[in-house]
From TrEMBL:
<dbReference type="Pfam" id="PF13715">
    <property type="entry name" value="CarbopepD_reg_2"/>
</dbReference>
<protein>
    <submittedName>
        <fullName>CarboxypepD_reg-like domain-containing protein</fullName>
    </submittedName>
</protein>
<dbReference type="InterPro" id="IPR008969">
    <property type="entry name" value="CarboxyPept-like_regulatory"/>
</dbReference>
Length: 416
């Protein structure tokens, strides 16, 4: 079950709208119930145990190493997860689980050995200037241009396969090995198993998919730990993960979110179908070049502009009007059809954000928009949701990328 934040419409700017597609795990960190994920890792062809394989829940800090017999046992909270199993020399394997349906005997995980005849790439080989230009583009759109995004280091850059030749209008990035990221501002090393990255130059859209594992810094001194705690809180608050968490608990208003509907209305700048048809007919029959030019500029050239525009409704919404709560089952769903305008009032826009007013960024609220791509999307207390493609995001939340990403098992503190 992929981790995603997604925007499906064409963005006006890559800064304000993008397609994000991580492989999103869904689970509830805040439940006290614990469950046991257990199993055995074996080789597919021989059915012999594979010792010391790594098993972890993607987009979390939760993981374990199998023992000498390939067996593992991991205590996990209630919820649904993507599990990634990997071992050097074998193809990584992912599978989805739900703690309501864990087999008592555990899982038998079968790994296929990798094809050893594949041509190896010399990571020390010098790249041409175009490769380095593409690398900077990848960093910009993958890590982000926020303060956190700019601080992240890729420790194995030359493992990246950067391709703009297969499709000249698309930068495609992949990596055989996990991308090793160091995020000093948030205090995480991140092993990001990148599945796909596509940046469309003409459409100005981005799609990236992958499995991140967060490894918190260890042996951090007290002053540094306090700073990391503050930075993590800043990254978390105002994020989509934070919003979902607050909606689930019914505290979004107290936490500083103002939600408003955006209603579509006919675009006043677009001529009506009747006027457009009349203009086409007159353009065909007229012999006047000046008249044809006028028709083209003032009417026909507007045929491709959107039929409708979104207008912000001034009255704030009751957040509960966007939710379906199944009290007996304890389940919560987002259920609405409009675009929802989100104002987060407890933190200003970062000065690095392209939409931040110059000189007065501290007075500007963070503005985002969301829309459902599914009729209903189930929410979890952790801030995750069931369908990774179910929520379209635009604006400030979409601007924050992997450099601001927090593990889904992050538990916020009261310190700000």
């Amino acid at each position: 079950m992929p981790f995603n934040r997604i925007i499906l419409s064409k963005p006006k700017s890559v800064h304000s709208l993008l397609i994000l597609a991580f492989l999103l795990v869904v689970f509830t960190t805040y439940s006290e119930a614990q469950n046991t994920l257990k199993g055995r890792v074996i080789e597919y062809s021989t059915e012999t145990p594979i010792p010391y394989a790594s098993i972890f829940l993607t987009n979390t800090t939760l993981g374990i190493t199998a023992d000498e017999q390939g067996e593992f046992t991991l205590s996990i909270p209630d919820g649904s997860y993507d599990v990634l199993v990997r071992m050097l020399g074998y193809e990584p394997l992912t599978f989805s689980i739900n703690t309501n349906r864990l087999p008592k005997k555990g899982f038998q995980v079968q790994l296929n050995s990798e094809d050893q005849e594949l041509e190896e790439i010399d990571v020390e080989e010098e790249r041409d200037p175009i490769w380095y230009q593409n690398l900077e583009l990848f960093k910009k759109y993958f890590l982000g241009t926020s303060k956190n995004g700019q601080s992240v280091q890729i420790n194995n850059e030359k493992d990246l396969l950067l391709d703009r030749e297969s499709h000249p209008d698309i930068l495609q990035v992949s990596a055989k090995n996990p991308i090793l990221l160091d995020n000093p501002n948030l205090g995480y090393q991140v092993e990001f198993l990148l599945v796909d990255f596509d940046y469309h130059f003409k459409k100005e859209t981005i799609l990236y998919k992958g499995y991140p594992l967060f490894i918190p810094y260890k042996d951090v001194k007290r002053a540094k730990a306090k700073k990391l705690q503050k930075n993590r809180g800043l990254a978390y608050r105002g994020s989509l993960q934070h919003l979902i968490h607050c909606l689930y608990l019914g505290i979004s208003e107290e936490e500083g979110y103002v939600l408003q509907k955006m209603k579509p209305i006919p675009n006043p700048d677009k001529p009506s179908p009747a006027i457009m048809e009349e203009a086409r007919s007159l353009f065909k029959t007229s012999t006047s070049t000046a008249l044809k030019d006028s028709i083209q500029v003032h009417v026909l050239s507007k045929s491709t502009i959107p039929d409708s525009v979104l207008v912000l409704q001034q009255q704030a919404l009751d957040p509960e009007s966007l939710l379906d709560r199944e009290k007996e089952a304890g389940r919560v769903f987002l259920n609405f059809s409009d675009h929802i305008h989100i104002t987060y009032t407890k933190e200003p826009m970062a000065r690095e954000y392209p939409g931040a007013p110059i000189g007065s960024y501290r007075k500007s609220n963070q503005i985002s928009k969301i829309k459902l791509n599914d009729p209903k999307v189930e929410l979890f207390a952790s801030g995750s949701f069931d369908d990774p493609l179910g929520i379209m995001v635009e604006g400030y939340m979409a601007w924050e990328r992997v450099g601001d990403l927090m593990p889904i098992d992050y538990v916020p503190t009261d310190e700000k």
